[in-house]
Each structure stands twice: as C-alpha cells, then as structure tokens.
Amino acid sequence: MKFSELLHITRKEKGYTLLELAQRSGLSYSMLYRLEDGDIQNPHPEILQKIAEPLTLDYEELLEMLGYINQKKNTPPSSKIVKKITEVPIVSWDLIEKLEKDEWNQCQYLSKQNLEYPAHQHPLVAIQIQRPAFLPMFRPKDLVIFQQSIDQNYRSDHYILYKNQHNELSIAKTYVHQDNTYGQDLNQQNDQTLFLLSQVTVLATVVGQQFLA
Fold first, then answer.
1. In terms of Cα–Cα distance, which of 158, 206, 155 is closest to 181?
2. How far, in Å, CA of 186 to CA of 209, rounded?
3. Closest to 209 (Cα-Cα) out of 107, 87, 127, 101
4. Pairwise CA distance, residues 156 & 7, whole Å
C-alpha cells in the first residue's frame, strides 16, 4: 500500500475531514491534500510525525514505509538510516527571481540557512514563499522544496517553477493532454489560461513542502 492510500483510508476510518485533520496535525489543508493525492512523494519525517499522532499511526512504521529506515527487525538504531539526507539551501523568492537556471548552484553560497531533506538525483533548493498569490496550495512563509528540472517528462497535477514570456517567476500546475503538456499559473494576478510548457522556461519541479506556523 502506498503512503497516500494509507493516509486516505486511515483518515476516513477516523471520520476526519481534511480540514479537521489539518487542525489536529498543525499541517496545512493544501499539504494534506497533496499528500493524499500522491503529489508529494517524500514527505519530511517531521510531517510524518505530525500526521502519525492524530491518526494513531506508528511513526517508525511510516519511516519504514517511505524508506527512511530499514524494514528489517532488530536493526541497531545507528545503522537504520538508509536514505541519504542532504543539506538544502533555503533562499528567498526575490533571490531566485534574480538567478538564471544555470546559476542555481550558487544558492548554497548565498543561503544563510539549510534544511535537512532526502537527497534527490538533481540539485534541490528550498524557497520561502513570500506572496499570498499562490493560495491555497502554498501559503506565505511556507518552505517549498524544488528540484532543478532536467528531463521534460512531466505528468498531470505536478507543480513547476517557471519564468513566463515576460520573464516573471511563478508557479504553475501541469496538465497532460495527448502528447502536449500544459501549465496553469497559480498566481491569481496572472493570466489563468493554459499554456504550453514548451513556450516557457521551466526551472524546477516541486518535490516537497514544509509547513511553517
């Protein structure tokens, strides 16, 4: 069973709506929605802990399910960690706006804070959302973890960081129809018309989110 399925089934068994679980766990509604939808593949252990408590799930079993620790019993605690953790630089939205795609490697030198997060194949950066325009998916001050985009094989219901034809930075949700991939801007102040991803510069894809109170 996938984690998203376990979360959905357990929440239903408890009789909680997503909003009620958000209130009990301290996580945002959008975070829980995306977890159940399977859009967030590697939720941070702190998120798992917040979910485990109100749903009375075993926190260690959740860590095992997502590969943070071995599934073998009687494994010494010191050798349980199997998923590589990396230090992800935390940067502001304003800084990312000024960088070109090939300058992302500078983030590690420009950042004053780091976030521990499971390592991915390509470079990661945590961007602190500073604008209310991306509600309800991303709230101001939330940390959104992006992986620099290399391949162009996007699926529907993913979220991308991109620069539009006016060279403005924004976040969009993806939709795949036949052989084309489209995006729809989440910024309510921008044009909400679907656009072809091939017509814009895709910088990164969302791989996680950390709720900040």
1. 155
2. 16
3. 127
4. 21
Report the Cα–Cα distance between both ends of the chain, in Å, rounded. 31
CA 37 → CA 10, 26, 34, 157, distances in Å? Answer: 14, 19, 5, 9
| 3-state secondary structure (DSSP) of residue 118 | strand
Angle ∠(198,202,206) on CA atoms, nearest 5: 130
Residue 134 CA to its chain's centroid (Å): 14
Smallest CA-to-CA distance from 133 within 63, 189, 204 is with: 189
Answer yes or no: are the C-beta atoms of 83 and 68 closer than 8 Å: yes
DSSP 8-state symbol, 192 = -
pLDDT digits (tens, 9 = 90+) for 136-192: 778 787 888 888 876 667 777 788 999 888 888 899 989 988 888 999 998 877 777
- Cβ pair 115, 145 in contact under 8 A: yes
Nearest to 48 by CA among 98, 10, 76, 86: 10
Q: How far apart are CA 107 and CA 190, in angstroms?
A: 27
Helix or strand run (H / E) with residue 32:
helix 29-37
Closest CA to 36 of 56, 57, 18, 58: 18
